[in-house]
Design brief:
heterodimer; A: 188 residues; globular; B: 369 residues; alpha+beta; 8-stranded mixed sheet; 16% strand
């Protein structure tokens, strides 16, 4: 038996092959980058919606784990990586809500403990007030507020995550903010 | 159009109140991400968990490709299994397809010594007696039963020969008939590209086994069909009727010798003539029945044509034929598989869609929207 060199197609340079492989890698989801840029946003969204730090941590971890395992299924034509990630996070958060069988109840208000332990100034009072005001919103309204102001998503991205039109997002957000302002009236 | 109103400083207050994760949680999550979310599998060393993860991690395109590849491999394996299991009867079936005159009856097909034997009874068997479906052989016990049973036998043999051998094979058939002291009732021989021959023979039943063996040895036997009909009952019945007729004739002769008047003698002679005519008819019918049991009708067909087993080299036509046959089997397996799997897949798809819809509804309901 003779030792033959491995067969190689002619006319295709190694550089071209390497460039193709590199382009293919770039086309894939850069999960590490997405994680670094979205970790705190996902947590803030989950905490704002669930109003429970422990549950928010669980949902955040579950969302990233699901995203990691499904990263090969990401299709850039269907939206940005952030919108895709928040879609997964939303499902995880709603599953958590469903599991608990109730809407977010205060086991620990995320807004009154966000790095302000022991402080009793006006800003702390405002956080407490905001926390109470958020609790009066419906789950859907609170979700929009969390996605907009805690996660920093644009109305278009929120529309993709929630499944409604961008103009509808704007309308609902405006309504939710009006309710919040009424609840916080005088403190701002 | 995105609204950018300030809402009286509420936006800034909300941004300031944005929840921030604990450092311990962030560090733990960073570690898990860096490790690629190792699964805390309860299955231990069994790689089922990782297999499920791999399947779930596949993109839809790769999942479809993997499923399609698996289906192709399954169809190829099934085709190989079916083709190899049918290989024993395939040449005969193929031959039967090519030669309509040698069509096989599946119900009656059975193997004997590598040759497809076809056994059956003619339409007359139900009218004249029970049909025995045993192939003849030289040592058949039917020879010893001949004294008690009247059996009519018939046989058809299909031989496959090269066109150049048809004439020689025909001569051998004549020789075999001569050796068996049989009779060639009819024969036709065709030369040329579609050379062939057909013989209608009468062979003494006692020599039928030898004759069939000799004819079968002439060339490749593609089909062999033998049938027997028990004609004992009509034979015995005719013999009894003939005995009665003879007794009646004897009685009439006695009456004739004792007749005293001319008128009486003429009446007896008329009855005697009628009875003798009746006896002659019975004898003829009995003779025909005995001839049916004494001689067996044998049809021999010699066909020529390309066949892998006909002595010719395996050529491009055979390759196309085999390829078509394999493709046909593969197509059949695919159709059967689709017939089974398509409804199941449809049910699974509907169940999956229903589950998704149910889940979405429950999630929205949980949100209190």
């Amino acid at each position: 038996m003779t030792n033959r060199p491995p067969a190689r197609s002619k006319g295709v340079s190694e550089a071209a092959l390497a460039a193709t492989a590199e382009a293919s890698e770039k086309a894939k989801l850069d999960f590490e980058r997405l994680y670094r840029s979205s970790r705190d946003d996902v947590y803030a969204y989950a905490a704002g919606l669930l109003r429970d730090r422990g549950a928010a941590e669980e949902v955040t971890a579950a969302a990233f784990e699901r995203a990691y395992r499904k990263r090969a299924r990401f299709d850039a034509r269907r939206g940005s990586p952030r919108a895709w990630l928040f879609g997964i996070a939303r499902n995880a958060a709603l599953d958590e809500l469903r599991r608990r069988g109730r809407q977010a109840e205060l086991s620990a208000d995320p807004l009154d403990a966000s790095g302000a332990e022991g402080r009793h100034d006006d800003r702390h009072e405002l956080r407490l007030l905001l926390g109470q005001a958020l609790g009066r919103l419906t789950g859907a309204e609170r979700e929009l507020v969390a996605l907009k102001f805690f996660a920093g998503l644009s109305n278009g991205e929120i529309a993709g995550v929630v499944g409604i039109s961008a103009s509808n997002v704007g309308t609902r957000l405006s309504r939710a903010m009006d309710k919040l302002r009424e609840a916080c009236d005088g403190a701002l | 159009m995105e609204r950018s109103s300030d809402h009286g400083g509420l936006d800034a207050a909300l941004a300031e109140a944005r929840p921030i994760p604990r450092e311990a949680f962030v560090k733990d999550l960073d570690d898990r991400v860096a490790a690629g979310f190792p699964r805390r599998s309860r299955l231990g060393p069994i790689p089922l968990g990782s297999l499920g993860d791999r399947v779930r991690a596949l993109s839809p395109q790769r999942l479809v490709l993997a499923a399609g590849g698996g289906a192709l491999v399954a169809i190829a394996l099934a085709t190989v299994v079916v083709s190899s299991s049918d290989s024993g009867s395939a040449p005969v079936a193929q031959h039967a397809d090519r030669h309509p005159g040698l069509q096989l009856s599946k119900q009656n097909r059975r193997h004997a010594g590598g040759v497809e034997y076809l056994s059956g009874a003619s339409a007359g068997s139900t009218a004249e007696g029970q049909s025995s479906v045993r192939p003849f052989s030289r040592d058949t016990p039917e020879t010893s039963l001949r004294a008690h049973r009247e059996i009519e036998r018939s046989a058809e043999i299909g031989l496959l020969a090269d066109p150049a051998d048809v004439a020689g094979d025909s001569a051998k058939v004549f020789a075999a008939v001569h050796d068996a002291r049989g009779i060639v009732l009819h024969s036709t021989t065709t030369a040329g590209r579609d050379a062939g021959a057909r013989f209608d023979l009468l062979i003494p039943s006692v020599r039928l086994g030898d004759a069939l063996a000799a004819i079968s040895a002439i060339d490749e036997v593609r089909t062999r069909h033998e049938a027997t009909i028990d004609i004992t009952k009509p034979t015995v019945s005719l013999e009894e009727m003939l005995r009665d007729s003879r007794a009646k004739t004897a009685g009439l002769l006695t009456q004739l010798s004792a007749a005293e008047s001319e008128t009486e003698r003429e009446a007896i002679e008329l009855a005697l003539r009628q009875e003798r005519h009746h006896a002659a008819v019975l004898r003829a019918r009995l003779s025909k029945l005995r001839a049916r049991s004494d001689f067996s009708h044998v049809s021999v067909r010699i066909e020529s044509g390309a066949s892998p087993g006909a002595g010719g080299a395996w050529g491009i036509d055979d390759a196309f034929g085999d390829a078509g046959q394999i493709l046909g089997v593969a197509a059949g397996i695919t159709v059967v598989s689709l017939a089974i799997l398509a409804p199941l897949a449809l049910i699974c798809l509907i169940a999956w869609l229903a589950h998704r819809l149910w889940l979405r509804t429950r999630r929205e309901r949980a949100l209190g929207a």
